[in-house]
Amino acid sequence: MSASNTPASVRTELRGPVLIATLDSPPVNALNVELRRGLIAAIEKAEADASVQAVLLVGAGRAFIAGADIREFGQSPQPPSLPEVCNRIEACSKLVVAAMHGHALGGGLEVAMAAHYRLAMRDAKLGLPEVQLGLIPGAGGTLRAPRLMGVGPAVDLMLSGRHMGAVEAQACGLVDRLGDDDSAEVAGLAYALELLQQGASMRRTRDASATSAERSESLATLAKLEAETAKKSRGLFSPLKVIESVRNGLELSFDEALKRERQLFLQCIDSPQRAGLIHAFFAEREVVKVPEARAAQPRRLASVGVVGGGIMGAGIAVSLLDACLPVTMIERDEASIARGRANVEKVYDGLIAKGRMTSEAKAAVMARFSGSISYDALAQVDLVIEAVFEDLDVKKAVFAELDRVCKPGAVLATNTSYLDIDAIAASISRPQDVIGLHFFSPAHIMKLLEIVVPAKVSADVVATAFNLANKLKKVPVRAGVCDGFIGNRILAVYRQAADYLMEDGASPYEIDAAVREFGYPMGPFQMSDLAGGDIGWATRKRRAATRNPKARYVQIADRICERGWFGQKTGRGYYLYPQGSRTGQPDPEVQAIIDAERERAGITPRSFTADEIMRRYMAAMINEGANVVDQGIALRPLDVDATFLYGYGFPRYRGGPMKYADMVGLDQVLADIRTFAKEDPLFWQPSPLLERLVDEGKNFDSLNRAQ
Ligand code: T1G
């Protein structure tokens, strides 16, 4: 069955000498077993009918074919395999033409490359994005693409995972003809008849072979690409397999190379990276499926106000402007408005400097921007997002103004990263219109948007927030109200585990190295130096009054901040940044502070391996993630995964902390936590949900499906 539960099929219809085979499996004709069988049946039907001289392959709906059916991976394979289908198409004794529109990706493009001729409508987007799922094109793509477009462009297409437009595809030889008629079927049929009229040859892609000079040039290109890829794809498994398979295609017979491609593909299928990357693919799509967003119609969303023109306010304004929404920015005085506008323009000037935007385009965008010092300018907007100073009283004052001037039904959103949104909602006359929209800095770049749902908000306001996220091309995650919502609440806990490791004997440099080795772009102490240690310092001071006196508190960060060493912005933090360089060097004075703090705390330092560091770091993250799900702050474990994949740099090929926990085994994670609890029972309290799942022999993913 297809994703939309209508039976998948390949319909065939004879039009003169052409048998049209229409793949129909909504929404994107992913090549499930029904379509694979239907394709072979269509080829056999064409061969059995003497009146048929050509076969035309087209996709129903909005796409040609979006690729193999990703939902089938990890299950027992059902014949025929996609390579068999492609070989059968290529071997067809009648001319086969593929007419592509919309997306022609992965196995979909491989089907088209196995055809004898290819037409693309101008809206077609072609690609071989398998590496983004931890795979390689496994149905002949690593052999046919180089034969059609040359090794360099083919490898670039496969390693980048990008979608190529129809015009470029024709220019590089992937496509023979561009279609301008009103449908792929009409254009494809006309093209097929034209080919028949011309007596076009069968032109099998596998028969296109390079001369020896071209082959040795290609092998040299591959060697260079291999060296670059080994460096760039840091730890990823499948990119180098792409290159190995392309090389086989140059050095071996087509059939031998095809056999090797299949072996390499199956190695990728078995790799944990495929499991992680495919989990990430589906998590990004499942997070938007929340009850409120499905139960209610979103409110009108045609104009937005932003209160606050600082870095966050400006970033949010850019994000809205980029979604073609007119924005009215409010600040307290003309100078602040000018600063807010300048912060917005700075983003676009940066794009112009990089040649990614024209000044005319910037002018068009800025025409949608207006600034005012009077809240009355917000009287008619559909939604307002405040991004003012993180202080509850300041925010309540803003909301009082919004309550006074905004039209009935306007959605009133706060960008707060930890304040109590229920308290903000309770401070005005319309709590049902109040919601949290927690953007991550830089707001116009980071994809994560935590949609924080207060107790009294109405469902259509939640639906409006999800609709806004879709317009902004963000990944929205529904979060409940608590200190830090999902991401920052969990961050605070595993950051504490890192501080304990540091005081117990691991240096911040060893911890950062272990976290980078795990796949993060940088470790927690590098992050602190980048964001500014003063931010965490302010949070610790804010929490000091309510901190559990029995809880272990590491003071190393305070000692560093007391010296004004806040990180990159002050030239030193945990690291030294000589002459403002961004790559930090270990600081012996920091090590001395750490030694002194260990002595003060009466700790005899011990060494930690990278594995020991990561087991603690991840156990803390996973355990708090389980608490966040158990307490309903996150709807499902996949919401925690999406939060960390899109807001905290978690390595995508590991699928997110909860997916990673499932791959490690929850019993292993729980055993680790129980071991660590012997040292510090207060910090290491196993999450009741984690204990329940282990007792029941279940994993976190079982809760994702339960929704
Ligand atoms: N398999 C199964 N389901 C798929 C799918 C696929 N290939 N592609 C999309 N869907 C579902 C998706 O989960 C969602 O489901 C719905 O379709 C709409 O998708 C052998 C092994 C095509 C650009 O990597 O990039 O071929 O949420 O929300 O934003 O070499 O989907 O409605 O239930 O993303 O318009 C290679 C993956 C596979 C392409 C459309 N192909 N898909 O984006 O809609 S591996 C890919 C996409 C392969 C062979 C190898 C995008 C899209 P639901 P959507 P969209």
Compose a concise summary of this entry:
This protein is α/β, with parallel strands linked by helices and 707 residues long.
What would you note in describing this structure?
It catalyses: a (3S)-3-hydroxyacyl-CoA + NAD(+) = a 3-oxoacyl-CoA + NADH + H(+). It is a single chain. With 707 residues, the protein is α/β, with parallel strands linked by helices. It has three domains: 2-269, Alpha-Beta Complex (2-enoyl-CoA Hydratase, Chain A, domain 1), CATH 3.90.226.10; 301-482, 3-Layer(aba) Sandwich (Rossmann fold); 521-606, N-(1-d-carboxylethyl)-l-norvaline Dehydrogenase, domain 2, CATH 1.10.1040.50. The protein contains 30 helices and 19 strands. Strands 12-11-10-13-14-15-16-17 form an eight-stranded mixed sheet, with helices on both faces. The longest helix is centred in the first third of the chain and has 21 residues, at 212-232. The mean pLDDT is 95. The site of (2S,3S)-3-hydroxy-2-methylbutanoyl-COA (T1G) has 25 residues, from strand 5 and helix 3.
